[in-house]
Amino acid sequence: MSVRNRGLLDYVMQRVSALVLGFYTFCLLGFLLSHSELSQVEWVGFMQSMPMMIFSTVSLVSLCVHAWVGMWTIGTDYIRTFSFGKRSTFLRQVYQAFVVALLLMYLGLGSSIIWSLG
Amino acid sequence: MNTERPVNLTFSTIIRQPVHAVASFLHRVSGAFLFFGSAYLLFLLDRSLASELGLHGVRIRLDGTPETYLLWLILVALIYHVVAGTKHLLLDMHVGDTHAATVVSSYLVIIVSGVLATLAGFWLW
Ligand code: HEM
């Protein structure tokens, strides 16, 4: 997709990832609601089954994509020349670096939790 | 600079917004909150999967302690964000995108989320 369509790509990625996250939330809450006296063996058995590990990984990546587009939008809405003058570009870059750093941490820690590598 | 430009600095008119604006802003606030809240959810997932003792620890942490409010707040944000997000996706497909319909659906989003948030509270406590 050309650079001109970056906005469209972001729009589509935010919506696809929203659907994945919504479905994942629904499944996890459904499982927890239907297992109130959950044992650890059951919980690990559920989360560390191959389908759930793949689903969790896809959702983790979706979270990163979704939150990146979302937080980017918020940043460009508020950190503007109108409020911050000449420094706004620099401030926005610091903000975006912070968002990316936290999401990369989620991605790394999250994968190691899902695949129990820690 | 045009010093005659209109400015609105009257607090009561800045703060009083139509219901769609409130619903939309809450969607944004809940999204940003979830961005940070995800760290706590990952932490709980890690503890609960680590060992028998880990899951037990999570249960003790969330047994009506102040920390339970933190999880509840994250759940409330998630509930609101998903309910409002669903409305947003429907609007994208031009479902209910007339002015009258959005007033109704914005109230509906707030009410439905409120009910679900209460139910989540009963579940946690
Ligand atoms: C759990 C992790 C989630 C996080 C951290 C998150 C975060 C965010 C953020 C920060 C925004 C930007 C808000 C704005 O621009 O005002 C956003 C937008 C959005 N979110 Fe989420 N979200 C999550 C889950 C979901 C889910 C499960 C849905 C499913 C319905 C969803 C639907 C949406 C939609 C449709 C938008 C677009 C709003 C717009 O274009 O203004 N999100 N999200």
Structure write-up:
- The complex is a heterodimer of chains A (118) and B (125).
- Chain A has helices at residues 6-34, 40-47, 50-78, 81-84, 88-114.
- With 118 residues, chain A is mainly α.
- Chain A is elongated and about 55 Å long.
- The model of chain A has no long low-confidence stretch (mean pLDDT 94).
- Chain A has a single domain, classed as 3 helical TM bundles of succinate and fumarate reductases, CATH 1.20.1300.
- In chain A, 82% of the residues lie in helices and 0% in strands.
- Chain A is built from five helices and no strands.
- The model of chain B has no long low-confidence stretch (mean pLDDT 94).
- By secondary structure, chain B is mainly alpha-helical.
- Chain B has one domain (19-124): 3 helical TM bundles of succinate and fumarate reductases (Up-down Bundle), CATH 1.20.1300.
- The longest helix of chain B is centred in the N-terminal third of the chain and has 32 residues, at 19-50.
- Bound molecules: protoporphyrin IX containing FE.
Structure characteristics:
heterodimer, A: 118 residues, mainly alpha, 3 helical TM bundles of succinate and fumarate reductases, B: 125 residues, 5 helices, 0% strand, elongated, binds protoporphyrin IX containing FE
**What is the percent of helical residues of chain A?**
over 70%
The number of helical runs of chain B is: 5
Number of domains of chain A: 1
Total strands of chain B: the figure is 0
Helix-strand pattern of chain A: HHHHH
Q: What is the subunit organization of this protein?
A: heterodimer
Mean pLDDT of chain A: 94
- What CATH first level of chain A would be assigned? Mainly Alpha
The end-to-end span of chain A amounts to 37 Å
Residue runs with pLDDT of under 50 for 5 or more positions of chain A? none
Beta-strand content bin of chain B: under 5%
Based on CA inertia axes, which overall geometry of chain A fits? elongated
> Helix amount of chain B, in percent?
over 70%
What is the CATH topology classification name of chain B? Answer: 3 helical TM bundles of succinate and fumarate reductases
The tally of structural domains of chain B comes to 1
Percent range for β-strand residues of chain A: under 5%
Largest interface: A-B, 25 and 23 residues
Gyration radius of chain B, rounded: 19 Å
Largest sheet of chain A: none
* Number of E-state strands of chain A: 0
Give the topology string of chain B: H per helix, E per strand. Answer: HHHHH
